[in-house]
Amino acid sequence: MQKILDTVDAQLETSLERLFAFLRIPSISAQPSHAGDCRKAAEWARDALAGMGFSARLSETSGLPGVIATHHEAGPNAPHVLFYGHYDVQPADPLELWNSDPFDPQLVDGPRGKRIVARGAVDDKGQVVSFMEAVRAHLAVNGKLPVRLTVLLEGEEENGSPSLAELLSNERETLAADFVYVADTNMWDFATPAITTSLRGLAAIEVRLHGPKRDLHSGLFGGIALNPIQALVSILGELKDDTGRIQIPGFYDGITPVSPAQAENWAGLGFDARAFLGDVGLSTPAGEADQLPLAQLWARPTAELNGIYGGYQGEGSKTVIPAHATAKLTFRLVAGQDPEKVLKHFERFVTERLPKDARVEFKRGGAAPGFSLSPDAPFLRAATAALAAEFNKPAALIGSGASIPVVEAFKTHLGLDTLLVGFGLDDDCIHSPNEKFEMACFHRGTRAHARMLTAFAAQP
Amino acid sequence: MQKILDTVDAQLETSLERLFAFLRIPSISAQPSHAGDCRKAAEWARDALAGMGFSARLSETSGLPGVIATHHEAGPNAPHVLFYGHYDVQPADPLELWNSDPFDPQLVDGPRGKRIVARGAVDDKGQVVSFMEAVRAHLAVNGKLPVRLTVLLEGEEENGSPSLAELLSNERETLAADFVYVADTNMWDFATPAITTSLRGLAAIEVRLHGPKRDLHSGLFGGIALNPIQALVSILGELKDDTGRIQIPGFYDGITPVSPAQAENWAGLGFDARAFLGDVGLSTPAGEADQLPLAQLWARPTAELNGIYGGYQGEGSKTVIPAHATAKLTFRLVAGQDPEKVLKHFERFVTERLPKDARVEFKRGGAAPGFSLSPDAPFLRAATAALAAEFNKPAALIGSGASIPVVEAFKTHLGLDTLLVGFGLDDDCIHSPNEKFEMACFHRGTRAHARMLTAFAAQP
């Protein structure tokens, strides 16, 4: 292993040269005028992988092509890893806020040493090249890889991935790996690596409560006539108890509580909920009182009123009892919850509370389950050990309150779990002017990738 | 008395001729082109009253003039009655739906005998003339009236009474009576006279609940961040308990419960709540479960959500936690409730329930107290007895769930209570094409007015 790490260190300058070449291609997927540049970036990656001994090609779609490259000399008994990244970048506007040309990468001094500044420096070309350089070091030392490796680079990630499902479907056999390994996320902080082990899903629903068949005058009917706004708020007002616990029967079915090990890991992160909330004018975690703030964000489901309307909404007052009132809700879901069942439980919760003469209409929206890696997954244990060895401290096992579409896509189309490890930082300005990737993060990321490739192979 | 009633009967044909002359004047106050006609109607009424021996004049305002006429020969010890009516009418559009010219009054056969058809037939020229003919009969028999009588006819009632306050203020001394006697309301049904003895007041307020200082992404913040829609509905959901009782402490302070006599009177009216609600698609009284349906409409206050809004209200879903949410409420108030205190109690109710980090903003709207005649008021007892004598059954002592602006104005500007007795029917099509006044209602109304004038004088 030490030889491989030494090789990573020794090749750092040429690694950067290769990254810079990739960054100079303005592969902006959202802008049709850059379609040719996107294809150039795909070809650059294909050629770079082919140059390392991969069997590499473009995989055409109705949109921009994917890059597919395989290196399977490790043999059928070695684990099969599917690496995912993307070669496209966000638009660079507003250009006047950049200190240098976004497509002329620079090494700039910063408080943590040199940093690479360019559009795509970290999202995602820098992370992709960081991984590729780890592969290069393995091959340079051993002539082969410890795992069967398939690389998939997408060209439309920054544009909503319109062709990803098509690409996964077309390449289902090639992509039939043991797990997906994605390098597109952040470290916890400059000193602490992170693995994102859980994502929340989503279920959306609109509820409209009907009362009288037309708007009524509140003088002539007030007191005797059902008010659908009152009926709606009375029902939705019961969604949570005083401790923030959601009161829908069955809502929490299937959820695994946060394990003591996970809770300990999070407690060690020093998350400052007061500062996090202070940025948006709040101070106190508003979720379940018996849950850690980070659990409220990452590990616990929500019932969120995203919108409500009914009756008169103009200036002053109007003495109306409206015919109906409407609320829009989304539920953030965690692993174990069935989105369809959650919506059904909610519908029953509302229906059981309907007052006489009220009628309810539901309109279901999108639904996707939450995701969580088992703490016993071999590739997770391998990654955790490799990161600890490189950084001399345990990796943060973090969650995300929102979903990541590609993770859902891999689960849906390939049935695969995803390991999310990345070396970006929160202040990297992704999608913004002066996007950067700390040179130290690039370098230690490459070393960590190299260690992880070895560690994956050592697992049962 | 019998002589006076016989005179009413004998003069019926000429009474109708006088009413028809009044109805031929198209005194539409809302249409400036009819300002001259309005003045003509005022002059017609002034001259008619002067012709009966009143001291009569126009009282100019910045709008249309009022008619003021006094007949005080009854002497300083007789009760002083202020009669109010209006000489203006609604526009007649749409003309094509009338069966005859709205300003060419007709006697038409109907299921209850002859009916007078014209714009203003009942609202309010027919009711005014009905009263004037009762006065005429008294004067014809006795040469004087049993009470001191002041007549006030307004010319802008159908146009929102913009100059009424000015008129009342200008004529404060002339109008300093014992009570106001208004003939502009309906009977309970064709066989049953009615006195409107209570009106509900109103207090309006808007409540805006603020949470985070900007809209938040519900994936990144959901679970840990306060949702102001949820906070608002949780608070407003507690406004009423399962029995419909309003939970604001102090809300019911000062209210006199419905008396057994009043309840008995209402029970005798045969009000069909199911039919009343059925017309608007409902079936079950939604107010306080221990109150009669008519009490829910007339005698009990309400807390009504007239509007609510917050967050996303478009198609589909948006995963937002909004910065604020707003509700608009009005309270219908009954006699004894202080509007300012009700609003203060509500504000405390909300404020005490605010979760941490929530901030609330109130915007108060208009406020007017409820009104109710004491069942012991001498003029009410007098009117009740006179109506019972004429109709051979007790009058319905009804309420109105809404306010009547002139009643508020008399209370505010003159400090006077109002007796509301009228002889219209619910199917008279006021404000609509083919407005009518049943000849029998006009006739018996005149007889009842004649009896009431006598009865007022007989009270202590």
TrEMBL record, chains A, B:
InterPro entries: Cyt/Met_Dipeptidase, Peptidase_M20, Peptidase_M20_dimer
Lineage: superkingdom: Bacteria
Pfam families the UniProt entry points to: M20_dimer, Peptidase_M20
GO MF term set: metal ion binding; peptidase activity
Keyword terms, alphabetized: Hydrolase, Metal-binding, Protease
UniProt-listed GO biological process terms: proteolysis
Domain Peptidase M20 dimerisation: 199-357
Gene3D superfamilies attached to this UniProt entry: 3.30.70.360, Zn peptidases
NCBIfam families with a match to the protein in the record: PRK07907.1, PRK08201.1, PRK09104.1
Name of the molecule in the record: Acetylornithine deacetylase/succinyl-diaminopimelate desuccinylase-like protein
Source organism of the structure: Acidocella aromatica
